[in-house]
Design goal:
22% strand, 7-stranded parallel sheet, alpha/beta, 5-stranded parallel sheet, single chain
Length: 324
C-alpha cells in the first residue's frame, strides 16, 4: 500500500520511516510537515492511506483533516495524544502518539495493523453528522470475563447507555458468571438478559448460554427490546458476537458503539465491520493486553476496527465517546 507520512517533526518522520521499513507491504511514498503540503502531495502521489501526527489543536489542520478524510475519501491513521481533538469520522483510525522513546516494535506492529485495516475498509461519507451514541455492545471469548470486568468497573455508576454483552460460555456457567460480575462490579448492575426485556441505561445485559442475544426492535424513547434467539449457531457458536453486533448496527446505525475484546477465533469481526459500515464506532483490544488476540485481530484485518487500544485505555475512551 502507498502511504504518506505527515508530521511537523523531522525526527518523528524519520523514526516512522525506519520503523515501517521492515514491513514489505508498506511503501512510504512521501513525507510532509503540514496539512497544506499533505493535500498537495495527495494530488501528486495518489496514496492509499495517510499517517498523520499533525497538531489537531490547530484549526487549520483540523480543517485539512476533514477535507482529506471526508471529501478526498482517504483513510487517515491519526497519531494523537488527545482523542478529544477530532471528529469521529467514519474513515479515521485513531492511535495514541507515543513519546520519542516509545516508538518500539509493539507500536509499529499496532500501526501496521491500523494501516492494513484502513487499506481494506470501505470509505463511507456520512449523510449527516453522527448523533450521540445510544447503545454499547461488548463481545469477548477466551479471557473475556476478567477483561470485561475491568472495563465495566471503570465506567462509573451512572453510565448513560444500555450495555449488551455476548460472551462465549458453556451451558450452566452463565448464571455463576453473572453473579460474579454483580459481586465484583459494585458500580453497575449486571444481569442475564431475558426475552422481550426492555434494556435500560446503566445496566449490563449478558447473553445466556446457548441463546443468541439480539435486538428485536427499538422503542420510541430509544431503548432496545431484547430477543433471545434459538437460531442456528454461527460458526459453531451460540451466543455469537456477530449476531449481537449486526443487530445493533441495523437498528442504531451511527449511534452504535461496539467493543471487541480478547478471544479465540474470528467471531465479532463481521459484526464490527457491519457497525463501521453503518457509521458506528468500534474499538478492538490491542494484542499487548489480549489473552488471545484472535477475535480483535480478525476484526482489524477485515477493516472493522476504528480504534485499537490496550485494555486499560478502553473504559476511558468509552466515557469520552459517550460524553462522560
Amino acid at each position: 500500500m502507498k502511504v504518506i507520512i505527515a508530521d511537523g517533526s523531522a525526527v518523528v518522520r524519520t523514526i516512522l520511516e525506519q520503523g515501517l521499513d521492515a514491513y514489505s507491504d508498506i511503501n512510504i511514498i512521501s513525507f510532509v510537515s503540514n496539512g497544506k503540503k499533505l493535500i498537495e502531495s495527495i494530488e501528486d502521489e495518489r496514496p492509499n492511506v495517510i499517517i498523520s501526527g499533525l497538531d489537531m489543536s490547530d484549526s487549520s489542520e483540523k480543517e485539512n483533516l476533514r477535507l482529506i478524510s471526508l471529501e478526498k475519501r482517504l483513510p487517515v491513521i491519526l497519531l494523537s495524544d488527545s482523542n478529544n481533538a477530532v471528529e469521529n469520522y467514519p474513515n479515521l483510525f485513531l492511535l495514541n502518539k507515543p513519546k520519542l522513546s516509545d516508538y518500539k516494535q509493539d507500536f509499529f506492529d499496532t500501526l501496521v495493523n491500523h494501516l492494513r485495516a484502513a487499506a481494506v475498509s470501505d470509505i463511507k461519507i456520512p449523510s449527516e453528522k453522527a448523533s450521540k451514541f445510544k447503545i454499547l455492545c461488548i463481545g469477548a471469548s477466551t479471557g473475556g470475563p476478567s477483561a470485561v470486568m475491568k472495563v465495566l468497573s471503570s465506567l462509573g455508576s451512572d453510565f448513560p447507555l444500555p450495555i449488551l454483552y455476548t460472551q462465549h460460555i458453556d451451558v450452566g456457567a452463565d448464571k455463576n458468571m453473572a453473579e460474579w460480575f454483580s459481586s465484583t462490579c459494585h458500580n453497575i448492575k449486571v444481569k442475564l438478559a431475558e426475552n422481550a426485556e426492555i434494556a435500560q441505561s446503566g445496566v449490563v445485559y449478558i447473553a445466556p448460554a446457548d441463546k443468541h442475544l439480539v435486538i428485536d426492535y427499538v422503542k420510541a424513547n430509544g431503548n432496545p427490546v431484547l430477543k433471545l434467539s434459538d437460531e442456528e449457531p454461527e460458526r459453531f457458536l451460540r451466543p455469537a458476537v456477530n449476531k449481537l453486533f449486526r443487530s445493533a448496527a441495523k437498528f442504531y446505525k451511527s449511534n452504535c458503539l461496539a467493543v471487541l475484546l480478547t478471544g479465540m477465533g474470528s467471531d465479532g469481526a463481521d459484526g464490527c465491520k457491519a457497525v463501521c459500515d453503518n457509521g458506528g464506532w468500534t474499538i478492538a483490544e490491542d494484542k499487548s493486553t489480549c489473552a488471545v488476540f484472535g477475535m480483535p485481530q480478525a476484526a482489524i484485518a477485515l477493516g472493522g476496527a476504528r480504534e485499537i487500544l490496550p485494555l486499560p485505555e478502553i473504559s476511558k475512551r468509552i466515557l469520552e465517546l459517550v460524553g462522560k
